[in-house]
């Protein structure tokens, strides 16, 4: 899928789903879309009437589904692109999309090794595409997800992840506020969390980590300290981009 020359395509918004008060999923119809792999991303370009244009990259939130592509966008205060996508774009509107981009941070349903997904905040998006691709393919590959976020109201895909997914275990970590009765106190990811919610190194899991740079570096260091193979740890990080 990456051998094709990337071109800008017109995408029409066909559905909107709110995930949190500041994030929404956009379902786009893109004629001629070549398909994609779970973990890839796209570039979104907006052009103003005066000709000024700007673009941002967003992870794809769901596996390939014909000409439909799902993006989950977190609004960045004072951003150039995300406020428009999350507050102004309505069904029927069009944007320009280029992709799919990336061929390393991907999971393919023919994989047999156990999978560990480690998400920090909105870093859950490409990992959710992997979870959905697993279900779509009827794969029995065992998955474990460790999802770290500031507080319960920021959970993406909350209802979907509450549903039973045979072979998928989900562990939530909260860094600032926890639900009533939650056993683990608020705090950042630790080696104990990784031991409890992850896989032993001798299981040889494929590990995917996505989130802010500091979170990704911490999670990677923990996995390496636990004896995981560095070649099996794939990372995708993001930082301030202006939104």
Q: How would you describe this structure to a colleague?
A:
With about 240 residues, the chain is α/β, with parallel strands linked by helices. It folds into two domains: about 10-100, Beta Barrel (Elongation Factor Tu (Ef-tu), domain 3); about 115-240, Nucleotide-binding domain of ferredoxin-NADP reductase (FNR) module (Rossmann fold), CATH 3.40.50.80. About 20% of the residues lie in helices and about 35% in strands. The chain contains five helices and eleven strands. It has helices at about 80-90, 125-135, 160, 190-195, 215-225; strands at about 10-20, 25-30, 40-45, 55-60, 70-75, 95-100, 115-120, 145-150, 170-175, 205-210, 235-240. The strands form two sheets. Strands 4-3-6-1-2-5 form a six-stranded antiparallel beta sheet. It has a five-stranded parallel beta sheet with strand order 9-8-7-10-11, sandwiched between helices. It is globular and about 55 Å long. The mean pLDDT is about 95. This is Oxidoreductase. Pfam families: FAD_binding_6 (PF00970), NAD_binding_1 (PF00175). Its cofactor is FAD. Keywords: 2Fe-2S, Iron, Iron-sulfur, Metal-binding. InterPro entries: Cbr1-like_FAD-bd_dom, FAD-bd_FR_type, FNR_nucleotide-bd, MRET, OxRdtase_FAD/NAD-bd, Riboflavin_synthase-like_b-brl.
């Amino acid at each position: 899928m990456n051998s094709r020359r990337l071109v800008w395509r017109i995408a029409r918004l066909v559905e909107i789903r709110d995930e949190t008060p500041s994030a929404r999923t956009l379902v786009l119809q893109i004629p001629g879309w070549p398909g994609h792999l779970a973990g890839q991303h796209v570039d979104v370009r907006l052009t103003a009437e005066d000709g000024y244009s700007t673009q941002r990259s967003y992870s794809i939130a769901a596996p390939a589904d014909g000409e439909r592509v799902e993006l989950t966008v977190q609004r960045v205060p004072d951003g150039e692109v995300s406020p428009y996508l999350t507050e102004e774009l309505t069904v029927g509107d069009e944007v320009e999309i280029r992709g799919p981009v990336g061929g390393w941070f991907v999971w393919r349903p023919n994989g047999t090794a156990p999978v560990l997904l480690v998400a920090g905040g909105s870093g859950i998006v490409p990992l959710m595409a992997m979870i959905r691709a697993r279900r779509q393919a009827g794969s029995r590959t065992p998955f474990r997800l460790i999802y770290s976020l500031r507080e319960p109201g920021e959970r993406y895909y909350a209802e979907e992840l509450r549903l039973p997914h045979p072979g998928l275990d989900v562990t939530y970590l909260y860094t600032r506020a926890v639900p009533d009765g939650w056993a683990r106190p608020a705090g950042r990811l630790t080696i104990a969390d990784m031991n409890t919610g992850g896989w032993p190194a001798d299981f040889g899991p494929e590990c995917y980590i996505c989130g802010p740079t500091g979170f990704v570096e911490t999670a990677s260091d923990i996995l390496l300290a636990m004896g995981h193979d560095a070649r099996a740890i794939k990372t995708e990080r993001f930082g301030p981009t202006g939104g």
